[in-house]
Structures are given as structure tokens and as C-alpha cells.
Amino acid sequence: MKELILVRHAKSSWEAPLRDYDRPLTSKGIQEAHLVSTYISNQIPNTFLIWSSAAKRAAETAMIFAQNISFPYESIIFKEELYTFDEIKLEQIIKSCPDHYEHLIIFGHNEAITNFVNKFGSSFIENVATSGFVSILFEQESWKYISNGITKKVVFPRDLK
User: Fold this and answer.
1) Looking at the whole model, is its pTM more than 0.85?
2) Do 121 and 20 form a contact (C-beta atoms < 8 A)?
3) What is the DSSP letter of 132?
């Protein structure tokens, strides 16, 4: 059995004239990332792998979650290819996870996350909110063959306010 946790990066700023890749989190995004990660901290498996998009907003979100779930920053794997908005590319990346990992947490971007969740999960989600957390269980023993998962948990910042 495999468990995939997808987290959409927290709210980011459009204020500065930066490339999309370099946009930082807003103060609201930082607060919401802390809110969700603190809430789910006791619901995370004991052992897991964290992959994050290398884009600034996703990396900052991953670091906030890591802090609140007691995961060492230096163990986060930043992947350039996770800077994608395409669920097919996201699917390919997830399916490349080594099978000896039972639990994978990914920090990434919409629309890839919402579309992936709706393709593989058992609950339709119109839009995974920023700082949104979605956990999906798969009965398959290999990441390569995941399909038809069961949506186990969905947490959005608005649920916690």
C-alpha cells in the first residue's frame, strides 16, 4: 500500500516584478502553511519522503511544513521537474518514486495538483486551495502502477479558521 500526500504551495506574492519561479510567499501564505502543517503534524506517517518543486513558493512551503512535522530541511529533495502545472508530468514524477518508500509528500503547483487529485482520488475537489493538503491511499505495492486511490484526508486553511 502507498500513501501520497499532495500539498499545494501557500499563497504567493505577485507584488514584485519577479519571474513566476521566484515569487515568495505572502505573510498570509506563511500563516496558512503554519496553520495546516501544525494541524496535520500528528497525522503524518512515521517515515516518509519529501519532494518539492524548486520554485521559491513551493520550497518555502515545504520548509514550513518540515519545521512543523519535525522533518530535517536537508532531507527535502528539491526537484526542478516538479515546477509543473501539468498533471501528466506530475503523474510521471510520482510514478518514478522508489518502491521502498511507502509514503511520499509532494509540494507543488496547481493545476497539476487539482487535476491529479481528481484523476486518482475518490473525492472530487473543485480546486485544491493554497496550502491545501490532500492524502490519497493506493492499494498497489508499486508507485509505477498506482491507480484509483482513496482520498483519505483533505485539509484546507479555511477549514481551520
Assistant:
1) yes
2) no
3) -
d(Cα 46, Cα 57) in Å, to the nearest integer? 26
The whole-angstrom separation of Cα 29 and Cα 98 is 31
Joined together, the cell numbers standing for residue 107 give 509540494
pLDDT in tens, 99-132: 999 999 999 999 999 999 999 999 999 999 999 9
Residues 6+ apart with CB under 8 A from 17: none
Which domains occur in the chain, in start order? 2-160 (3.40.50.1240)
pLDDT category at 16 given cuts 50, 70, 90 is confident
Separation CA 45–CA 71 (nearest Å): 11
108 phi and psi angles, rounded to 5 deg: -150, -150
